Each structure stands twice: as C-alpha cells, then as structure tokens.
From TrEMBL:
Species this chain originates from: Nipponia nippon
InterPro entries to which the protein is assigned, alphabetical: ClpP/crotonase-like_dom_sf (IPR029045), Enoyl-CoA_hyd/isom_CS (IPR018376), Enoyl-CoA_hydra/iso (IPR001753), Enoyl-CoA_hydra_C (IPR014748)
Protein name: Enoyl-CoA hydratase domain-containing protein 2, mitochondrial
Gene Ontology cellular component annotations, sorted alphabetically: mitochondrion
GO-annotated molecular function: enoyl-CoA hydratase activity
BP-aspect Gene Ontology terms: fatty acid beta-oxidation
Domain of life from the UniProt record: Eukaryota
PANTHER family for this protein: ENOYL-COA HYDRATASE DOMAIN-CONTAINING PROTEIN 2, MITOCHONDRIAL, ENOYL-COA HYDRATASE-RELATED
Family label: Belongs to the enoyl-CoA hydratase/isomerase family.
CDD domains in the record: crotonase-like (cd06558)
Keyword field contains Protease: no
UniProt keywords, alphabetically: Lyase
Amino acid sequence: LRFDEKVRVVVFRSEVKGVFCAGADLKERAEMDDAEVGHFVKRLRNLMDEIAALPVPTIAAIDGYALGGGLELALACDLRVAASSAKMGLIETTRGLLPGAGGTQRLPRCVGIGLAKELIFTGRQIDGQQAASMGLVNHTVPQNNEGDAAYQRALTLAKEILPQAPFAVKMGKLAINRGMEVDIASGMAIEGMCYAQNIPTRDRQEGMAAFREKRPPQFIGK
C-alpha cells in the first residue's frame, strides 16, 4: 500500500460482525514465556508504527468491539468512525498488563493526558457516543441492520478525500504528524519544507488553473 501510487485512502474494517478487533489472544499469550511476549509485543508495536506511517490518510471503521490492541490499531489510523453501539477501551490493566502497541502514547495525543490516564488506569470500556464526546472518534453513527454503519460512514468520508490533490494531502499528513512531535517553531519549519515540496507539482498548477477557469480540478498526484 505504501508504494502503490493509486491508493488515495486506506479504510480499516472487520468482516466479523460486531467486532472491529478484540486485541491479542490472551490464551495464546499465556503459553508464551517472557522473552516471547516481549518479541510479540515489539512486532505488534512495529506493525502499528507501519500503519501510522502510511503516507495516505487512514480511517478506522469501528463497527463493534475495539479492545486493547484493537483500539491501538484504530489509534494508529488518522481518522476514526464508530457505530454508537461500538465498545472501545484500553483494557490491559484489567488483565495485569499495560498498553504496549502505542496506546500509552497515541491515546493522550488524541484525547488529552487526563482522559487518557483515566481510561488506561481504569481499563474502562466506552461506547461510540462517549468516544465522540471526548474526541476519540471523528464521527459516530447509529448501527444499521447489516452491522456496517461505521464502514459506510468511513467510505463517505474517504470519498470526500478522494477528489483532493493526493500529494498535497500526503504532505499535509506529514506536516501534521511531524509537527505534533516538536515545538511550534520547529513545526512551522516542517510545514514550510512540506509546502516547498508541493510548490512545483503539476497538481498545484492544475488547482490554480481550475480556479481561474471556474471548473473542477483534475488532479493526477504529481
């Protein structure tokens, strides 16, 4: 996906009704020794980092349970859409664990330190409405009979992104992600470097021409 220039948006969904991702198999984990657990969690953390580093926008469509590593998967995405009935939580402390695939870092960046600490310390599960109220998800929708309401809303959101200039969107994602890791002055410098890369693109010229000619732009990603 990273190297496929035809990909504009990636939507993560589950084909299991009622479950987005229930996290690690604790029965499997119980059979691992300490070294194996450490290796397993490191691989999982690397996977989440790979998802977060995808150059195109990513959307998690949460139509059911997103628990533990399942919520960490959703947090690794840029945007999240949830059914109102979905259940989410970093429940690791209820099993004698702590989030180990990015949850302790991505959740506070998403909802703030206080709320993140409360959710992680308590292992509490919240529904889609509560997640929306605290900014954990971008949108929440009533579940439908097919059980894919969040996926359908995610597709609508993806279709809003599709017509936009692909390279500009990629640079916008890069500027936001890198800028959030540094102070504001350094972030401004990062934005400037990303903007400079976008200036010579054909899409920028097409955007200006389309505006002058009062027509929809036809972006090609170059």
